Each structure stands twice: as C-alpha cells, then as structure tokens.
Amino acid sequence: MPKLLIKAQQTGVGRGAWKRGHVVGVFPDGHVFGRRESLPRFVIVTVPRSFVVTNPELIQEEWSGEELVHRRKWRIDVDSLSPTKRTELEVSGETTLNRSESDSVLGRETRD
Amino acid sequence: MATEVFVTIRPSGDGGDYTSMSAAEAGEQQNFVTADEYLVAEVQGDWSSAADGPVLFTGSTLDATRYMEFRADASNRFNGEYSTSRYRIDGASPCLHVRQGHTYLIGLQVTQSSGSDGVIVVRDSDGIGHVHDCYVSNTNQGILVRFSGTAYVKNTTAVGGAFAFRFRDDTLVFCHSCTARDSGVGFDSVNAGTNYTLRNCLADGNSTADFQGSWGAANNNASSDSSAPGTGSITDATIVFVSSTDMHIDASDASGIKTGGANLSADSDLPVTTDFEGDSRSATPTIGADEFVAAAAGGALPIPAFARRSRLSRNSNLRR
To answer: What pTM, to 2 d.p., does this model score?
Structure first.
C-alpha cells in the first residue's frame, strides 16, 4: 500500500509555509525513508491504493494565477484520528489507515 | 559565522537523510536567518533506477550567508552529457521553482516531461536563484527569470524548446559562461533588458536566433549567427562540440571561443573560476559552460576540481 509522507509541524512563513497535515509526497509500498523523514519533521501514513488513486490532488499546490495560495490544496487532519492511531503516530511516527479512516481525515486546506 | 546544516538526499533504503529533494526542502524549511544557519543538501548514491520530481522552493527566510544549497555530488552532477545513470529531476514544468531568497541549485540535470513553464524558474521580488553548473532540457522555456526575480546563472547549459534562457520583466540577471544549444532562441531578453548582464555566453544552432532582444552589460559572447551582443563577441562562428549530446568543446573547434572569453575570476557580481565540471578557468577562458582543456599527450586527463573536494560549500568557496 502507498505511504504518505506528511508534515508533522508547521514551518516557514507566508503562503509557502508547510503546515501540519500537508502531504509532501506519495511513495510506493516498500519505500524506505531517510533518517530525517521521520518525527519530529514528518509522520508516515500508509493508506489503501484506492485512496491515492481517487485523490490525485493530495500533493497538488493551490495557485491563483501567479500567486501561491497553499503548498497543498488538501491536508490530512492527523489530529482527528482515533486515539489509538494518534498514539501510534506520536510514538512511532507511523500508522496505517483503512479506506474509511483515510476518507474521514482528508480535508480541504482553508484560506488563512 | 553561520553554522552549516549538511544533509544527504539518497535513494530509498540507501541510508540518507532524505529520499527526495522535495522532502529535503520541506523538512529543512525554517527561518535560517534567526537560526543563523545555512543548508547544504547534497544528492548522493545511485539514482539510475528513477528520476526525482519537481520542487518548489519557498517559505524559508534566507539571506546572502544564510541560504539553502541543493547540489549533486561528483558522481551525480552533470558532466557534459545528460545521463540517466545520474541524479536527474523530471516532471511537469516548472521542475525547480525558486520563490524565496538565496537558493543555490548546483550541478543538477533537469528535464521536462510536460508543461509550458520554464524548467528552472526564478520568480517574484523574493526570488533569488543561483543556478550553477546545471543542465536543462526543455520543450518550451529552459531557464526562466521573471516578475522581479534575481538570478545568478553560470556554467549552465540549456537545450531544446522555444527558449533556452529567457529573462523577462523587471528582473535582475547575471548570466555568465552559459551555453544555449538547439533551441528556438538561445538567450531571449524580454522587456527590461537593461538589467541583464551577459558575459562569456555561447549560443549555437538556435533556429530563430542565438541571442534576441536588448541587453545591459554584454561582452565576449559567441553565436553561430550574427546576434552575439557586446564587445569582444564572436559572431557567425562555426562551433564544434564533441557530439550532438556532449556539451564539451571539441579540440577541432577553430572558432576562437576556446580562448575568447573575458576573465571573470574576480567579477564582483558573479565570479567564474571553474566550468560546469570543476575544471579551472584559464585567464583567457573558453566562452560557454565548458572550459576547453587539451588532453595531455599520452597522459591522464586532469581531475576535475569537484572530484578532489569531498565537501565544498558556498562559504568555503568564498574563502578560497
């Protein structure tokens, strides 16, 4: 199943800032992440392939003409996961979601 | 003095800090000025199995000494001929997009699979891009600077597309020792050309024009047509590369470009002391991204400077 590399904290300034929940990249099953692709910078969430296929905008930026609106159009609201899943993320930095869990935490990025 | 943060970008499972350049940009994004740090993110390892994807550089706070540098190591940097056995970025343009302060892109191979934007783009008043020793292949615009961006481009080769190098709007551009080849227009100046400096740049075989538009400071450029601007420039030159894909100047070239460049080693805006593969520039350097180095009779070829240095940084370059 694909793995989502997700920002665990907000960094940067302005519209270019990465925010908690932004999906930086989608990686194939078996991908071995680097040392810094982990807490406290990132969490890794494994999701069903169908979730990635039906949500191609996961890693899309949002632009208004030449102006960047958001680094990502969508975000994974990791804070609304179940207590069990949140604990997994806080302890190991990784968790696995089924399709309904994935759908329930996917949300549109809101304007500042 | 600012502290260096050194990270590696290596393929999956190869023991690096990051497995993609976009993850490195996201993971290291911060206010570098407040932290009094600068980033060196070096691509290492065997990337023959897959290309990396596009990267947007924005959101970090940077200045001239607290910057972000993304570079390929000796085994991955462009060495004169595009190679899929080396690290390369491929994707929809813009592939490398700078919209923040001082960001260095060094020795990278960048190709475009789709899109019509520039392949390497520097935009906005906050955008300050340093593009050194790179290779860009494009279908429309290669190196594009626009919307008040500032760009320092040297030893970079751009091929194909409608425009190899394109500078637009109220931007500030220093373009030294670059090569544009087999595009529509090699070097294109649109609008505020007085802010564009073009020195020791080489354009060959571009179907519409090698150089087009007006330029500010320009000297010692060379073209295969009559368009090379500035004093000391060579026009209507028959330029001989090693091959259609190898960007080294061939020994048989008799156009005058081998020693036709101005000495830019002490240039206050953008000094040039080496070529794209680290060979030292002579006092009368070759025009373009490659410094012609004659092979020693019966001897080994000189070892490029970058291969002799294990870790070089912008600050260490300044100290040299």
So the answer is: 0.93
Contacts with B59 from chain A: Cβ below 8 Å:
11-18, 71
Residue A23 corresponds to which amino acid?
V
Any idea which residue has 């073009």 for tokens? B198
Amino acid, res. B81: E
> What tokens were used for A77?
């609201």
CA distance B89 to B113: 10
Report the sign of the C-alpha dihedral through residues B145, B148, B20, B11, in that order. Answer: positive
pLDDT digits (tens, 9 = 90+) for B184-236: 999 999 876 678 999 999 999 999 999 999 999 999 999 999 999 999 999 99
Residue of B144, B140, B134 lying closest to B167 (CA atoms): B144
Chain A nearest CA to B133, separation (Å):
27
Q: Which helix (H) or strand (E) holds B103?
A: strand B103-106
B142 close to B183: Cβ distance less than 8 angstroms: yes
- Is the CB of B22 inside 8 Å of chain A's CB atoms? yes
Assigned fold of B3-238? Pectate Lyase C-like (2.160.20)
Q: Of the candidates B152, B219, B162, which has an alpha carbon nearest to the alpha carbon of residue B187?
A: B162
Separation of alpha carbons A62 and A70, rounded Å: 5
pLDDT tens, position by position, A78-106: 999 999 999 999 999 999 999 999 999 99
The answer, yes or no, to whether residue B310 has pLDDT greater than 80, is no
Give the integer Cα–Cα distance in Å for B69 and B4. Answer: 10
Q: What is the ipTM of this complex?
A: 0.96
CB contact under 8 Å between B58 and A31, yes or no, is: no
Give the closest residue to A9 by CA, choosing from A49, A48, A39, A47. Answer: A39
